[in-house]
Every structure is written in structure tokens, then in C-alpha cells.
Specification:
By secondary structure, the chain is mainly alpha-helical. It has a domain at 58-88. The protein contains two helices and two strands, in the order ββαα. It has helices at 11-26, 44-84, and strands spanning 2-3, 6-7. A two-stranded antiparallel sheet has the order 1-2. A hairpin with a 2-residue loop joins strand 1 (2-3) and strand 2. The longest helix is centred in the C-terminal third of the chain and has 41 residues, at 44-84.
Amino acid sequence: MSDGDYEFVSTEEWEEEQKRLDRQWYSIDEGYDESHNPFSGLSDEYTKRKEQELEQKRKKKISARQRQIQKVTFIFGSKRLELFCPPL
């Protein structure tokens, strides 16, 4: 049955259609193919160069972090020595 441009459907059919539309909507971001992948045009050289830059940045952050830990450890040890071993 239809009334103008609208078709009347049962509640079950409507719910099934809603589930189908939800699955379709949320699956839009799941996968890329060559025509829908924004990163498909990147060259391997560019990708490798960016990965190397990120690795160098990560190493610098780690070494700065380690320097800070060493500094704090040294200060803590010095204060501890002053507290428990007063100068003679």
C-alpha cells in the first residue's frame, strides 16, 4: 500500500532497514581501496623518510627524558647525602 510517495512498511521491515543503514554508515570508514585511500599516492621514499624523521624525534625525546631523570636522581642523592652524612 502506498499513500502518495510514501510506502507503508511493517515495524519489522523498518527496523531491518534501520539496521542495514546503520551498518552501511558505520562501515564507511572501515576499509580503503586504491580509489578511496587518501594515502595511496604517497611514494615509498617519502614514507621511509618520514618514518626516519619520527624515529629521530623519538630518540631525542627519550634522551632528554633520560637526562631529566638522571638530573633528578643526582639531586635526590645529593640531598640525601647532605641529610644523613653531615660534613665533618
